[in-house]
Amino acid sequence: MTKAYRPCVGIVLLNRQQRVFVGRRLDARQKTWQMPQGGIDSGETILQAAQRELFEEVGLKTPEIVHILPDVYRYDLPEDLRARLPWGREYIGQEQTWVIARHHGGDEDINLQAHTPPEFCAWRWCAIQDLPDLAVSFKRPLYHQVVKALEAFLGTAGAPKASL
User: Fold this and answer.
1) CATH (domain of 21)
2) Domains in the chain: how many in total?
3) Count of CB atoms within 10 A of residue 14's CB?
4) CA pair distance 54, 40, nearest whole angstrom
5) Once rounded to an integer, what is the mean pLDDT over residues 143-160?
6) Which of 16, 99, 127, 132 has its Cα between 20 and 30 A from that of 143?
7) In whole angstroms, what is the distance from residue 15 CA to residue 35 CA?
8) Contact (Cβ atoms closer than 8 angstroms) between residue 15 and residue 124
9) Sign of CA dihedral 50, 52, 55, 61
10) Once rounded to an integer, what is the mean pLDDT over residues 78-100?
11) What is residue 47's three-state secondary structure?
12) The whole model's pTM is what?
């Protein structure tokens, strides 16, 4: 039987300076960073999942969701990591739909402890182009694809070409 990919949402959270939120996972063995992401629950829309994940991982209740990238991106999880995840026996990796959101507030609005247990132990804003180099090795190809799509969406001036 062929295993499937877990339906998931990823969130590119931009601040006013067009920098992207990244967090360091509490359970990470390497000092890598990632954007918020998580599974899409049964009966949940992509937007609902994105809003839930932003609250659970970042503590934001009212981010502005501005765009859903049209493509779906996949990555395979390494065998050792799949063995440790509760859903790892059912799925070989994740299939992600990416959402672009904007945070109009300040850094003080970010609360990694908003949900128990927290997923991130640290966070920061980074340049869009730095995302692939910060990610764990098995996610780097996906992050390159997301960065390319994000740059196309933002254009050279950094302002969105469209919105929801």
Assistant:
1) 3.90.79.10
2) 1
3) 24
4) 13
5) 82
6) 16
7) 13
8) no
9) positive
10) 88
11) helix
12) 0.91
